[in-house]
Amino acid sequence: MHLSKWLRHLALVLVPGTLVACGGSELPEVGPVDAVPEAHAALAADVTVSFQRGVSPSSTYAGVSDTWLQEGLPSTNAGSDAVLRMDRDYPGASGQSANALLRFDVRSIPAGATVRSVKLTVNVTNRTSGEGFFLYTAGRDWSEAQATWARATSTVTWTTPGARGAADRGASVLGTLLPAVTGPYTVTLGAEGIAAVQAWVDNPATNRGFVLDANTNMDGLDLASSEAATLAQRPQLTVTYTPGFVHPGLHVSKAQLDFVKAKIAAGAQPWLGHFNKAATGSYANTAWTPRPVQTMQCGNSGSTVDIGCYNSRQDALRAYTLSLLWYHTREQRYADAAIRILDAYADTLQTILFINGDVSTHNGPLQAAWLAELFPRSAEILRYSGSGWTEEKAVRFGDMLKRAVLPRIVNGWAGGGSNWNNSMTNGVMNIAVYTNDKALFDKSLAMWRVHVRETFYLTTDGAAPVPAPDQRNADGSWKSGALLSSWRGQTEFGTTRVNGLSQEACRDFGHATMSIASVSQAAETALLQGVDLYAEQETRIIASAEFMAKYLVPHAPNNNGQLTIPVDSWLCARRSEYVKKDGQPVPNNTVEVQILPTWEIVFNHYVTRRGRSMPSTGALLPRVRAGGTATDLQMSWETLTHAGVGSVGL
Prior knowledge:
By secondary structure, this protein is an alpha+beta fold. It contains 17 helices and 22 strands.
């Protein structure tokens, strides 16, 4: 390790209040809070779509194929008939059979959707009695224009004539048709029918439709076919489904990446400059050897224990940088190097230790949060960009995230809406999207809605900020001392000049900026998945960003340096009682400013997309882009993902 990196590493481990030791000894050593209640629906609402030739989803839909097979004319195709006939005695008194084939093209249901219910509606022209007619899955491909009693196509015979062999149809009954009258008749498919349609959605090549047949019924059933002259009488399949996750749709979308890729190819700034910074920096090393450990242990509060912590953060940053370089160049060496890192962690990491009250494991939850913010970004890009990463290995990586990382962050952190909780929320959402876990995604939305209100103060909140559950009394008021402690000596609330203050601003602007980063990144992911968290807290987030930016623009040093500056008497009035630097109390009425490599996402959404006014943030952004580093934990390469993308892909 180079000396400069070693010194930075040492500082991150040893000095309370530095950026990486984000919990610091100042926070109470308490365990995770109780699970956040799930609230609000995730993704889009359930969608119901009907498939009916010439009617829906549109009048141009022609995706229904059907025909009937007759034993008495084993070489005759009936694909153009306006009727579908099923009978165990057709023609009458012949003892011969007739049955039907029916298939709907359901490819307009998006990939990843979860099928909830399926109904088949037909128009009965000749009712039956006695035994019902049964619906099975067809087991082999067949042609509407070629299928006969003897053949599925002109070149393929049925295993057993009439599509009655084990390879011709499934063994399970998906639904039963037993109409008592003529006219419209609907059958609701059970679990096995839903599973069949789900399989067609997941893999359209397996959609061979249905076989309609009876075991013994000699009282025939006739249905209008998809060639019936009256459109409303044609067979209709109605499917209700829950839309799946958009991929890639974690932190950044394909459309956004393609936008940036085009800007780089055109030599446009700031994209090309940041691409060159990534491509020539140490994180682009394709020969890098990852350094995972089986059991990770991360100390703080005076403990110097670091077993795999710093190394894993560096590995995660390298994997992310390499993944972006792969996407923007399509040079396989970048993808292979990133995959090697992810596979190493999938195969090795089993747990991140945390024992409440043990300083040698104190930062375990925070470490897990950072890894959950970074690692899934790389995995999402590689998995859905043709990188050569096998699906089996991509799934194994997701298993590792849930096994080793998720348990440390899924229930948040006691003490309110600090950067810990916001990083955890962002990480939980990332894991949810990557692993296609809708219940977990719902939980991350609920976490975001709670913690963003605890983190950023608005005067509309009242005379005091919103306390976390463990910070308030039964009547909702703050517990004694909790407000001053968690807001690091801020005493004034309720006035317009405090509007937008972040909970950790009096600690230092670095930690407050980390919350802006995690909150905006999670909101971006949610928006890509159809949930607009940005809109829910627009006033709050804009106010907080502008509050910090108005101090950062005129005062913060270049190249990500830190500087303590004096401020008015109403701001951080008792800071010295709650914040120490190098073991010494800091002065009251001061703040420590620092520009970190974020801000692109929040500015792109509210200004470029929505046209809102954020003048101070706008003035800050050029300084962010010109900063000495473009990577700092979750705040990494935002210019290469979100600069100027606007509403592309939404």
